[in-house]
From TrEMBL, chain A:
Name of protein: Branched-chain amino acid ABC transporter permease
Protein's membrane topology: Multi-pass membrane protein
Keywords from the named record: Amino-acid transport, Cell membrane, Membrane, Transmembrane, Transmembrane helix, Transport
Any GO MF annotation of the entry: transmembrane transporter activity
From TrEMBL, chain B:
Domain Leucine-binding protein: from-to ranges: 38-360
Record organism: Falsigemmobacter faecalis
Lineage: Bacteria, Pseudomonadati, Pseudomonadota, Alphaproteobacteria, Rhodobacterales
Gene3D superfamilies: 3.40.50.2300
Protein name as catalogued: Amino acid ABC transporter substrate-binding protein
Alphabetical list of InterPro entries matching this protein: Leu-bd (IPR028081), Peripla_BP_I (IPR028082), TAT_signal (IPR006311)
From TrEMBL, chain C:
Annotated transmembrane regions: 24-51, 63-87, 99-117, 124-143, 173-192, 222-245, 257-280, 287-306, 312-333
Species assigned in the record: Falsigemmobacter faecalis
InterPro entries cross-referenced by the UniProt entry: ABC_transp_permease, LivM-like
GO MF: branched-chain amino acid transmembrane transporter activity
Keyword set, alphabetical order: Cell membrane, Membrane, Transmembrane, Transmembrane helix
Membrane topology: Multi-pass membrane protein
The protein's name: Branched-chain amino acid ABC transporter permease
Main location: membrane
Length: 294, 395, 347
């Protein structure tokens, strides 16, 4: 393989890897939005919290990674449950913006709590993914990125299947398409809300562990969530498939931009894509187009 | 409104203004206390720079204690007045305004480049304060634009010069790549650094800029593999994403040597990284707590503090030393503590001996101390060991 | 006790201050504003100036979000546009300061209209996210258009000069910032006594219905964006005269969130809400400093928890007000007023 092509392939693979992480985080946004019509910006901070919980279980209590990871994910889910029950449920019927701002405020509270408990210094997670590189033919891939890619695609795959066949998944889809109808069919709509928040936040916490394994953890790592938000808007707020495709696509685009134009262009191009999508297809590539009636 | 009443109104306003002028004067005089010397501080005790701020505060307290035990500066006791800024420039400014309106402050420690730039004009106007700080920004190393500020070490461009000089000695004509974060901090020394590399006959490769908050560095590592540099100099980071960079480069079998600037050089931040950090080099303007070469000041520090003290500690110690030395020179000359006098006194510092915290005596002609040494991390010893002599890149 | 105010004309009904107590309070407030710099030290004057800059910006955002129902999370970027414009004009042209300040506001307004263009197609949360995106793109321009913006190092200013008088100290700047703030807030209050303001409110309440009623909604939405950004631009211009340096990192996303939080906490859709909210949100972190000082004998390392506590309180205020007091501080003030007005009866 010639050098330029090899480089291009490697960059693309790296982009797919980080794209998978974006997709996983985007999934957290989508799950919560689909059920409750809330854009939960605190996903970014729950992601960070997941990293810190893992750190506590793995480094301070010295649990093995397969013990710490489920605990971190459970912790994220528990936060989701508390937040949904305590803050979001009382806001039912309020404007979308108000609920959105509640999650923004919640994010700030979580950052403050993490700073108060764990301090503000960046930390490294214990190494639980081996460092040996992986080669596809000649093309190099970082093992951590590969693990993240596999984990993300498996999780998203499971969700896609669950949504088709599991009762709860069907209930969630029913709630998403028509709340009143779902109610009258005997679906426990508040229960669906809770489940969506728990699963969404748990997913975010899991993504946080993967992210922390690659780049370390710090109270500001939540900015990653903004990129994932771009993915969700571009892919469609209520589309799982959109999160997957959008995440991978954005990951690859960011990798290309960063390699061939320079790192400083990543953020304007990312947000340029966002604005363009909003103007051309406000409901995203795979989202449902809602018609507003008086 | 009649003519008369308007005039009397004006008179009234004038009188009030004068009265406040007088009052303002008296309040200032009221807290001007000749028995003490206050070092004010906008310190980043929390936030991304928290690790440094805490160490800086300890060092300044310790040095104040050392001086006070010796009878103070010209008979005045040294006291610290500081507050946490969380490394946010607007908070730093608020803290500055609060502290200076409550204390008679002539010496100050500021935390960020943005704060230093913001407050510099005010310092020049009020002409009361000499300020050191945690910023090594090249921009601040300009006595004309920033007359009341000094950098307690080499500025970032001078740090690059020291590293490049070391590279040129170790491997003439070596290929160098800079990896910098996309921030004011990160972009600071790129242009002067590249120019310096060319002047030293080095092969200047790419400059890789990483977007802020980027987690995965695979694409940047791939760029490195294409460039195959002998040396990489990181700047604009403290720790992340350096470990990931070095570990991936090692996986790819790159022989590149990695270097960093002062704020990445604390050995404690590399302890939990382990083998990947082995061989990491960087510029350090001060000695480490555990250095074995004879140094009376280090002995004293080790006596006061039984455990390892971070690089920020040394930085804070030097800052306090320079601030107090300048104040001492002004007071001993019987002059007034103004910003100009303090700065002039600071510039008279020649061949100053820091008791070994900086390994060679130095002079402060401009705003910086252009002296430093290259250290290398050893994962086995969990220590930074010197690999060069002290290098002076000053004019 | 005041049972009611009898109004004899529409003009009286539309007046900004309708009752005698209101006029008295307003007179006291104005007298206080004039007297403030004579009685407080530099620190408090500094805070007063900062509060007023935030009041202008928050009032602008309130026009957009509280009155027109368009949410912006890019308001800080418009402040940055104003700040850069004023800094550049002050450095490179000899134009008088008021002209530069006005030009800064107008440029910000132009950028605001441009950013507001997508509001034709998108609204609600999507619009909020589009404004975040716009602010990141502006941030990129501030970094990369080096010949004008000075790159990452930004622009540094000499003290401004107005009518031959140099604005060096905070107490000098106060006399520029205070009157401008009073003017801007009065302007915003007057806006809602005429057609434009009523059109904004109609759009907020139901934009489709407003269009049916014959309000050209695109024009009014853009007007609202322009006005809000004009306010932000003026605030940013004052900000740069105040701090005398602007860099791309001067106006981060957090500032936009802060301004929106100020509007929410103060009370959306009331002029006094924006004012009180900005005052409250600027002062709370400062006052927390005193609380932590006070607690420091009890809690070890109190100075280390100040910053996390501020972050938590900031978030908790947003959440708390949205959940328990969605009308904000303005509503609390109304309640207190009602209490005294009908005292000794209960409401």
């Amino acid at each position: 393989m010639n050098d330029d092509l090899l480089f291009f392939t490697e960059v693309t693979l790296a982009g797919l890897g980080s794209g998978a992480l974006l997709a996983l985080t985007a999934l957290a946004f989508v799950l919560i939005y689909k059920a409750t019509r809330v854009i939960n910006l605190a996903v970014s901070e729950i992601l960070m919290l997941g990293g810190y919980l893992f750190f506590t279980f793995a480094a301070s209590l010295s649990l093995p990674w397969w013990g710490a990871l489920p605990l971190a994910i459970l912790g994220g889910g528990a936060v989701g449950a508390i937040v949904e029950r305590g803050l979001i449920r009382p806001m039912l019927g309020e404007s979308a913006i108000s609920v959105f701002m509640v999650t923004v405020g919640l994010g700030s509270v979580l950052v403050g709590l993490v700073e108060a408990f764990w301090g503000t210094d960046p930390k490294s997670l214990p190494n639980f993914i081996a460092n040996t590189p992986v080669f596809f033919g000649e093309a190099y891939v970082s093992r951590k990125i590969l693990v993240a890619f596999i984990a993300a695609t498996v999780v998203i795959g499971i969700f896609l299947i669950l949504f088709r066949f599991w009762r709860g998944g069907v209930a969630l889809r029913a709630t998403a398409s028509d709340q009143a109808a779902a109610y009258s069919c005997g679906i426990n709509v508040p229960g669906v809300f809770s489940i969506a928040w728990i699963i969404g936040c748990a997913t975010a916490a899991g993504a946080g562990v993967l992210l922390g394994a690659i780049g370390g953890i710090s109270p500001v790592m939540g900015v990653f969530g903004l990129s994932a938000l771009v993915v969700v808007i571009v892919g469609g707020l209520d589309s799982l498939l959109g999160a997957l495709v959008g995440g991978l696509a954005l990951g690859v685009i960011q990798a290309w931009v960063s390699s061939f134009l320079g790192g400083e262009y990543v953020s304007p191009i990312t947000f340029g894509i966002l604005i363009l999508t909003l103007v051309i297809r406000p409901y995203g590539l795979f989202g449902t187009h809602e018609i507003e009636r008086l | 409104m009649s003519q008369v009443s308007r005039r009397s109104l004006l008179q009234l306003m004038g009188a009030t203004a004068m009265a406040t002028g007088v009052l303002g004067g008296t309040t200032l005089a009221a807290f001007a206390d000749d028995s003490e010397l206050v070092i004010g501080g906008s310190l980043p005790l929390t936030g991304v720079f928290g690790f440094a701020g805490v160490a800086i505060e300890k060092a300044m307290q310790d040095y104040a204690k050392i001086i006070n035990d010796q009878g103070g500066i010209a008979g005045r006791k040294v006291r610290l007045a500081y507050e946490d800024t969380a490394y946010k420039p607007d908070t730093s400014v608020a803290v500055f305004n609060k502290l200076t309106s409550q204390n008679d402050i002539h010496l100050y420690y500021g935390d960020s480049t943005a704060f230093a730039k913001t407050i510099s004009l005010e310092l020049a106007r009020a002409d009361r304060i000499l300020m050191g700080g945690a910023s090594f920004a090249t921009e601040l190393n300009d006595p004309v634009k920033h007359p009341n500020i000094f950098i307690p070490g080499p500025d970032y461009s001078e740090m690059f010069s020291i590293l490049l000089e070391h590279i040129a000695r170790e491997k003439p004509g070596a290929k160098v790549v800079f990896v910098c974060s996309d921030s004011e901090f990160g972009r600071d020394p790129i242009e002067p650094g590249a120019a310096r590399a060319k002047a030293l006959g080095l092969d200047m490769g790419d400059v890789i800029i990483t977007p802020p908050g980027s987690v995965d560095v695979s694409t940047e590592v791939l760029k490195l593999r294409r460039a195959r540099p002998d040396y990489v100099i990181f700047h604009g980071y403290i720790k992340a994403p350096l470990p990931e960079f070095m570990s991936q480069a090692k996986q790819l079998g790159l022989e590149t040597k990695f270097m960093g600037t002062f704020w990445s050089m604390d050995s404690s931040i590399w302890d939990d990284v382990g083998d990947v950090a082995d061989g990491f080099m960087g510029i350090m303007p001060y000695r480490y707590y555990y250095d074995t070469e004879p140094a009376p000041m280090l002995d004293k520090i080790r006596e006061m503090r039984g455990e390892y003290q971070a690089t920020g500690y040394m930085q804070g110690m030097i800052s306090a030393m320079i601030l107090l030395e300048s104040a001492k020179r002004v007071l001993e000359d019987g002059q007034e503590l103004t910003g100009k006098n303090l700065k002039a006194a600071m510039n008279t510092i020649k061949d100053f001996d820091t008791g070994g915290i900086i390994g060679v005596p130095f002079s402060m002609a401009g705003n910086s101390i252009p002296v430093g040494r290259v250290y290398q991390y050893s994962a086995a010893e969990k220590k930074m060991n010197p690999v060069s002599d002290w290098i002076n890149v000053g004019g | 006790m005041i049972i009611g105010t009898a109004k004899e004309s529409y003009r009286a009904d539309e007046a900004l201050l309708t009752t005698t107590p209101q006029r008295i309070w307003m007179a006291i407030l104005m007298a206080g504003l004039v007297a403030l710099p004579f009685f407080f030290n530099t620190y408090w004057i500094y805070l007063a100036c900062l509060v007023m800059i935030n009041v202008i910006a928050a009032t602008g955002l309130n026009v957009l979000t509280g009155f027109t129902g368009l949410v912006s999370l890019g308001h800080a970027a418009f402040m940055a546009v104003g700040a850069y414009a004023v800094a550049w004009l002050e450095k490179n042209t000899g134009l008088p300061l008021p002209v530069n300040l006005l030009a800064g506001g107008l440029l910000a307004a132009a950028v605001g209209v441009l950013v507001g263009l997508p509001s034709l197609r998108i609204k609600g949360l999507y619009l909020a996210i589009a404004t975040i995106a716009a602010s990141f793109i502006l941030h990129f321009i501030f970094i990369d258009w080096r010949s004008v913006t000075g790159g990452t190092a930004g622009l540094t200013l000499e003290p401004g000069r107005i009518f031959g008088f140099q604005l060096v100290e905070y107490r000098h700047l106060y006399w520029l910032i205070m009157p401008v703030t009073v003017l801007m807030v009065t302007g915003a209050a007057n806006l809602f006594r005429n057609r434009i303001g009523r059109a904004f409110i109609a759009i907020r309440d139901r934009d489709i219905s407003a269009e049916v009623l014959g309000i050209p909604i695109l024009r009014y939405k853009l007007l609202s964006f322009g006005l809000a950004s004009f306010y932000a631009g003026i605030a940013g211009g004052l900000w740069v005269l105040f701090f005398r340096v602007v860099t791309p990192e001067s106006f981060p996303l957090v500032t936009s969130i802060f301004l929106l939080a100020a509007v929410i906490v103060g009370g959306m859709g009331t002029i006094i809400g924006g004012v009180i909210g900005a005052l409250f949100m600027t002062m709370v972190p400062e006052l927390l400093r005193y609380v932590v000082d006070f607690l420091s004998p009890v809690i070890p390392n109190a100075s280390l928890i100040l910053s996390p506590v501020r972050t938590i309180v900031f978030g908790a205020l947003i959440v708390g007000f949205l959940v328990f007091e969605p009308q904000g501080l303005a509503e609390i003030i109304q309640r207190i007023r009602r209490f005294f007005r009908v005292w000794p009866f209960r409401t």
